[in-house]
Specification:
This protein has 262 residues and is of the alpha+beta class. It has eleven helices and eight strands. It has helices at residues 16-24, 28-40, 54-61, 64-83, 87-108, 110-115, 187-193, 195-203, 210-217, 221-233, 252-260; strands at residues 121-124, 127-130, 144-148, 155-157, 170-174, 208-209, 237-242, 245-250. The strands form three sheets. The chain has a three-stranded mixed sheet. It has a three-stranded antiparallel sheet with strand order 6-8-7. A hairpin with a 2-residue loop joins strand 1 and strand 2. The longest helix is centred in the middle third of the chain and has 22 residues, at 87-108. The radius of gyration is 23 Å and the shape is elongated.
């Protein structure tokens, strides 16, 4: 895949339009050189060449700037069709994962962070190893971690055209979305306080943050905050601080209400 289609993120959480602008603004000579590189392949690494389609050849004949702009347009259409309808829920999952990983680093260090991410990622005596069919050694002061809901295996992204050290390696690792909720609210509780608030109250069998609840229930953090506010004013949940995080837990009244109607 041409590297210009997946630009290095400019911020920790770039908007889609920011990323598409980076694609559209790729230097024309880079676009053409990367497409030519894919056509020739890299036999020594076991990567065979891929002949471009007739449509792509016609686009390349109009120059790299045209290809970059057209690619950004097509990516925007694909985003709107395939990802935009699910992005709010997906972003909640990803944000909750980032918060959880930050907590692991703060409490237990980098070793526990890397060794808990994926079986193909290990940390041992200052060396980060990532399973891959490629072989390489990089001496870098840091890496950027990116959880993904679509990646199947860990991967490392390195910009081959930038000067060494310009961008740290980007380590992408798969994040599995929860397949089901651990706690299910009863129909009686749902009728009493509403289905969303019933689900949140039942899920608080242990304290949880707003982002964690949002990810677990595929809701936006703002929606969760609103419903938690209603439950708090009703005396059913209360906030507690855990370091720099705010967690919510059921009060005695909330626990009685949730467990008595399961």
């Amino acid at each position: 895949m041409p590297d210009f289609l997946s630009p290095y993120p400019s911020t920790p959480a770039p908007a889609i339009e920011e990323e598409l602008e980076l694609v559209a603004g790729t230097a024309p000579e880079r676009v053409i050189s990367e497409l030519d590189f894919i056509r020739s392949g890299r036999p020594r690494a076991g990567l065979q060449g891929l002949e471009p389609s007739q449509t792509l050849r016609r686009a390349m004949a109009r120059g790299g700037r045209h290809v970059a702009r057209q690619a950004a347009t097509e990516l925007r259409h694909y985003w709107q069709l395939a990802f935009a309808p699910h992005w709010e829920a997906a972003k909640s999952l990803l944000d909750a994962e980032v918060d959880r990983r930050a907590g692991i680093v703060a409490r237990y260090g980098a070793g526990d962070l890397f060794n808990s991410m994926h079986p193909g990622i290990t940390w041992d005596n200052g060396t980060l190893r990532i399973e891959s069919r490629f072989t390489g050694i990089l001496h870098v002061p840091l890496v950027v971690l990116a959880p993904s809901l679509v990646a199947r295996f860990p991967a490392v992204a390195i910009d081959p055209l930038e000067p060494p050290g310009q961008w740290p390696p980007l380590v992408v690792y798969p994040l599995t979305a929860p397949s089901s909720r651990a706690h299910t609210a009863s129909a009686e509780l749902a009728r009493l306080v509403g289905p969303t608030r019933a689900d949140l109250l039942t899920a608080l069998a242990r304290p949880a943050s707003t982002s964690e609840l949002a990810a677990r229930h595929f809701l936006s953090p703002a929606t969760v905050s609103y419903h938690l506010g209603v439950l708090r004013r009703s005396g059913l949940v209360s906030p507690i601080r855990d370091g720099r995080y705010v967690l919510y837990r059921r009060t005695e009244q909330g626990t009685h209400l949730a467990t008595d109607r399961q």
